[in-house]
Amino acid sequence: MFPMFVQPIFIGYMMALAAVIYVASRPKNEALNLYLAFILRWSVFIIFTILSLIYVTENTLLAVFLLVYLNTTFNPKPITA
């Protein structure tokens, strides 16, 4: 579906989401956790959406939908807990 050279974009996106969730869970304040998780997660989403728009020209809409799906559903906390 996607060429092999764009696969690192999605793998990097999942690793970036895992890092964002880890960083957001570090502070002891719950309000700060929510704020960091929201801001960092959507910042990473915007960056990787721009990368997808640049490098995935043939399936751009599908790539953006995949990023939205991963952003709203990926939560590595059950994996690490």
Overview of the molecule:
With 81 residues, this protein is an all-alpha fold. Helix content is 78%, strand content 0%. The chain is built from four helices and no strands. The mean pLDDT is 79.
Could you give the distance between the termini? Answer: 33 Å
Number of strands: 0
Strand content: under 5%
Give the structural class.
Answer: mainly alpha
The helix fraction, in percent, is over 70%
Separate helix tally: 4
- Average residue pLDDT: 79
Task: Give the CA-based shape.
Answer: elongated
Main beta-sheet strand count, sense and barrel state: none
Low-confidence stretches: none
Which helices and strands, and how do they pair?
Elements: H1 7-25, H2 30-55, H3 60-73, H4 77-80
Helix pairs in contact: 1-2, 2-3
Key descriptive features of the protein:
81 residues; mainly alpha
Give a brief description.
This protein is mostly helical. Helices cover 78% and strands 0% of the residues.
